[in-house]
From TrEMBL:
Record's protein name: TTF1 factor
Molecular function terms from GO: chromatin binding
GO term, biological process aspect, one: termination of RNA polymerase I transcription
Superkingdom, natural source: Eukaryota
Domain Myb-like: 172-254
CDD domains according to UniProt: SANT
Gene3D superfamilies: Homeodomain-like (1.10.10.60)
InterPro entries noted in UniProt: Homeodomain-like_sf, SANT/Myb, TTF1-like
Gene: Ttf1
Classification via Pfam families: Myb_DNA-bind_6
Signal peptide: none
Matches recorded under PROSITE patterns: MYB_LIKE
GO cellular component: nucleolus
């Protein structure tokens, strides 16, 4: 029954009571037995970003299922509604060969998250670049016609469901995309200060009165200034900026303060920073970006937040590595080391 399912799932998913009843019933059928098996093996249920190892396991599970069933592509398997003439046959094969169980094999996560990840990985409509002004207008028109039917809109626009939903959430909000005003910057700084103070008071169990807050400085670890901040909440407090803009702006503010305004990523300093970054990543010999100690890597550029280093690495791989979306993390690093590094060193 539902209460028992909630009680049993709560051991693996602490926030389960915030999930809808229909989703809990599905999780009880698809996930509970798997979670118990993982527990016996000493493996905890995971959330957050998928590792390269998990992505490879999803690819392996999909390939094996295609071989078993004879379905000729991952797109047909995961986006069956795009192929109405084959829909009945594919759905029967998925039911007969236990698609849910096969897809989630070896991955200690809720099935729904694995399914969404697989759809993102194998969607031919993904990674299509920025939206043009014309596309944004078309998206608004389709939303007026079809509401939040992202599946229908994604088919009409040849973009992924997630892409059109996220882009529309940006368009409909009163977001400013120009330079930050002094007032907006102040709002951002106050919002970040507020959430950090609340967190420290909660952890310390000693809330400050308003008068104490205005007169007393608080001592915090530097990492608390940029790690695991609730950006959606902060964006709502700022009001005129999307949460990603707030995160990027806060990283810029911190970087300027920590480096005393020095230009660390321009001219010869920028070339040296890129060289150092590539060398350090290559020396780490890690297979997945989740295994990278970005905090340690920040010294390759200077005394900067980890988000700054991650952003610079992202720009480096996008601008320098052909077909980077299809490469593993280690293949990207090898390419940068073997092909890009000599070019940067010669330029320096």
């Amino acid at each position: 029954d539902l209460d028992t399912a909630k009680q049993e799932l709560e051991e693996f998913i602490p926030h389960v009571r915030n999930i809808s009843d229909s989703s809990i019933r599905k999780m009880a059928g698809r996930d509970l037995a798997r979670f118990k098996q993982f527990k016996k093996q000493g493996i905890a249920v995971k959330f957050g970003r998928f590792s390269q190892k998990e992505n490879n396991q999803i690819r392996k599970n999909i390939e094996e299922f295609l071989l078993i069933t004879g379905i000729d592509s991952a797109e047909k398997l995961l986006f069956t509604s795009r192929y109405p003439e084959d829909k009945e046959t594919i759905n029967r094969l998925k039911a007969d060969h236990l698609f849910c169980e096969k897809l989630s094999e070896g991955i200690p996560r809720p099935w729904r998250l694995i399914y969404y990840r697989a759809r993102k990985m194998f969607d031919s409509h993904n990674y299509k670049g920025r939206y043009s002004t014309e596309e944004k207008e078309i998206l608004k028109k389709y939303h007026a016609l079809h509401g939040n039917n992202w599946k229908k809109i994604s088919e009409l626009m040849s973009r992924s469901n997630l892409s059109v939903a996220m882009k529309y959430s940006e368009i409909k909000s009163a977001v400013n995309y120009g330079p930050w005003s002094k007032e907006e910057t102040q709002k951002l700084m106050h919002a970040v200060e507020e959430v950090i103070r609340k967190r420290i008071e909660k952890e310390g169990g000693n809330p400050l009165s308003s008068s104490e807050k205005s007169h007393r400085e608080i001592s915090i670890d530097r990492e608390a200034l940029y790690q695991k901040l609730p950006w959606t909440e902060i964006g709502a407090k700022v009001g005129t900026r999307y949460w990603r803009q707030c995160k990027q702006k806060w990283t810029t503010i911190l970087t300027n303060k920590m480096t005393k305004g020095q230009q660390l990523y321009r001219g010869t300093k920028g070339l040296q920073a890129k060289i150092n970054l590539i060398k350090r990543l290559y020396e780490m010999k890690v297979e997945d970006d989740n295994e990278v100690d970005w905090e340690e890597l920040s010294n390759a550029i200077g005394d900067v937040p980890r988000a700054y280093v991650q952003a610079k690495f992202y720009k480096l791989k996008v601008s320098c590595v052909p077909l980077w979306q299809k490469k593993t993390f280690s293949e990207i690093i090898d390419y940068l080391f073997e092909e890009k590094l000599p070019e940067l060193e010669e330029k320096l």
